[in-house]
């Protein structure tokens, strides 16, 4: 029995004052806690959910879980109970309003304001995620702003109870605009589900609108299965790219690609705020909210107050049936209505009592007048006066009296400007315009202009400043004509300047601008567009003599591709180095074109001088050279088998495909070594190895040589002897 009236008392404790809001699943009432003497809010489930045992069990479990989560950014839950078949939550009474109402009053928020709201939302939501809770219905209507400017997350639990109800089997539970892809597809919901919805809320805070739309709630919901949430900067200029990245990550279609939970989202948001050095911001309280008015009503209100429906109407949390295209009943925020007037949705409205006509009171009877002409004259004068008055009043009404004057609103903030024009008796819409002098989100003027007079109820457009225009960034491949149209939307003219080379922008498209994209300029400024010449031509470098691997790296770094590689002999280029290229050095190519390489096969004769003949012959044989040797009688060496010269000389480049003979030259003369200070035995061995003899037969092998003839360094023919003297 969810039909409650003013004065009803729940379980002898919570006295109903009046309804605050009514939705498809519950009604929220302002109540007085008679035990503690404080104002609270009671959310009472509608009969179709309260009568379902499974819903009540989940509702109770969620209520207990929420009661354990005490945090300044969560709406406090004080009590839960069932009374005469009703299930209800008793919660903290929020006396400010909803984020939905704030958005309706002020429109899109700058990044620092959106950050202040989302920091509070994600802080509260992270507490719930740490407790294993998933909200599943994050939206501006469930984000409340208290009178002390504190932002709080509300409505945990009830949506989960609705999901368990038999009424929603096979249906999509939630608000279409904020549903995650997994909610639409019926997959498992996790904290990443709330992250997606919070990302949509951030998008709406920055742009003033949700990312998708549809003719029906189902069509609206299905879009997130097929499309990514667009970047906020695509809807409103000037939003930093880091906020685009926040929205993109939080609203990734794959839950695994999102922030894991609200805590991770919050950490990323704080990093962005620090990077951009965003200022602190106090979230304002909506000035015209149902909660604000509810808080202003005394708790003993019993009089009848005319019921009106307030705008804007919030997004409804609903069960989206696949075949249901009829609009569902929205949540209605009600002013403090009367006891009998606060009936449940669908009940007969209370009869309005109109005052009856006043009783006729007879006037004093005048004394009889005998002169009938005088009487007629009096009547005539009265009629004449009435006619004259009617003419005067009519002239005033059909002249200037029926018109109102459009007020001056320049410099007022958006909400104040709209309210001022409305109070003057006009219907109002708004238009965002660029202006050099008036700060963003303040009024520039009206259309028609202030001071003009119109009939009451006429439409007046309030012009709201977007601030000075910024130079738009050309989209990839954007033509000059399309860029002129884009700049024209920002009041800007476009001229063309010098064309520039660009690796990324196609030839003829807008490559860059002066001033640069994103720079603020006065209204009506001229922007210079520089068209692309395409990639800058690349000159083929001279690679002759460069190692082939180094040459390939050089060409690739220039943006050229490696074509065919061939080899041939060149007697000036070492093997493995570049002989030439095709096209040749100095030719110009476009990025990505191919360059063929010609690599030398030449083999260099190794330098084997100083080595023994046998070792040198082995080395040359291994390298497929033909080998011969020759003794040069005029050549001098330290050993009779030492290679003292080669023909061809070392370093000569030869063709490996042609047989090449290398001549090794050994000495005919030996350089006498210094043997003084050595024993006769050691000196004999040293001289014999060099190809010389020793004249020391009269000496003992252990004697030390003190003198030798000829002296060390003298050249002797092979086999000659060295005379020595010893100390023996």
UniProtKB/TrEMBL annotation:
Residues 717-728 have a biased composition (Basic and acidic residues). One of its GO terms (molecular function) is protein serine/threonine kinase activity. Residues 338-351 have a biased composition (Low complexity). GO terms for biological process: negative regulation of fatty acid biosynthetic process. It holds the Pfam family Pkinase. Residues 309-328, 338-369, 709-728 are annotated as: Disordered. It is an enzyme of class 2 (transferase). Keywords: ATP-binding, Kinase, Membrane, Nucleotide-binding, Repeat, Serine/threonine-protein kinase, Transferase, Transmembrane, Transmembrane helix. The chain crosses the membrane at residues 375-398. This is non-specific serine/threonine protein kinase. Residues 400-466, 467-533, 534-601, 666-728 form the PASTA domain. NCBIfam families: PknB_PASTA_kin. It catalyses: L-threonyl-[protein] + ATP = O-phospho-L-threonyl-[protein] + ADP + H(+); L-seryl-[protein] + ATP = O-phospho-L-seryl-[protein] + ADP + H(+). The lineage of its organism: Bacteria, Bacillati, Actinomycetota, Actinomycetes, Mycobacteriales. Its EC number is 2.7.11.1. The keyword Transmembrane helix applies. Residues 14-281 form the Protein kinase domain.
